[in-house]
Structures are given as C-alpha cells and as structure tokens.
Amino acid sequence: MTTPVRRHRGGAMQDRPAGWARNPLTEFDQLLSEMSGLMESTVGGTVPAVAWTPLADVTESDDAFQVEIELPGVKSKDISVDANGQELVVTGEIKEKERKGVLRRSTRRTGAFEYRLRLPGELDTEKIDAHMSGGVLTITVPKAEAAKPRHVEISDRSESTESSG
To answer: What CATH code is assigned to 51-96+109-147?
Structure first.
C-alpha cells in the first residue's frame, strides 16, 4: 500500500501557516475536538468530555494563598470549588450557546473545565472564601495558625546577668 505524497510547486517545502505562530495550541484543540467527534460517532452515545484548564495566577502572602482564575462568561452557579487537605479543585462547564444560522468560526472555549492546585503547608479549609468579579474567580485560602510565619523577639540576657552580679 502506498501513501499519498503532497507535492509543492518548485519542490520547496511549504512554510508554517501564518496563524500557527500566534497560538500553537489552536491546532491541538481542533484535533481533540475532531477526535472527540470521531469517537462519539464510532462508539455512539456521549463520550466523556475532555476537560480544559483555565488560566490562573497564584500568589502567597504571610497568612493566605490567593488564586485568581480567568472564567469569562461563566456564572458562579456553574462553578464548583472543593478543598481536600492541601488540594484545591475548581470544576465547571461553559455551555455552548444555542445559535440561529450557520456558525462560521468559533474560537471560544466551551465544555467542561478543571483547575487543580496542590498548596504547600497546612491550610484552614473552613475559612476559604471565593467570589466572582469581572470574569475572574478569586479564591482566598487562609493558612492554618501553625503554618503562619511568626516573628520571634530576641532578648539580650548578658545585660541582665551583669547588673545582678
């Protein structure tokens, strides 16, 4: 069996597409989408959706960790935040809009998403705070009292022993 070969004019290799350099993961996302559709048509029924990971920033202060996750267009009721020991798990789904007409191009992410983070040290999971503002989910995870840094004052004992003698 022979494999078809694509020939180019002038025999030169074709350069990468212009859009490839801007976002190399676009082609990978399209491939995953096509593979998911192929699996669904082959196996039948629904295939578990491949979860994507949203962009996030994690900062640490003396008393807490703050996680900011970009979730534009997601309602807070469609997000679940779970803490188990040192692990923080944020899951949810961006539902695809019902559209009229033919969709010519779509680059917005839809479907299930998951963000997992393992934080160092002891955490106070009872006091975790989460709120949505401007498409950004901000989660504050306080450190446990034992894990917080503590400043220790140094006393000078040489002065007290000299004055008593």
So the answer is: 2.60.40.790
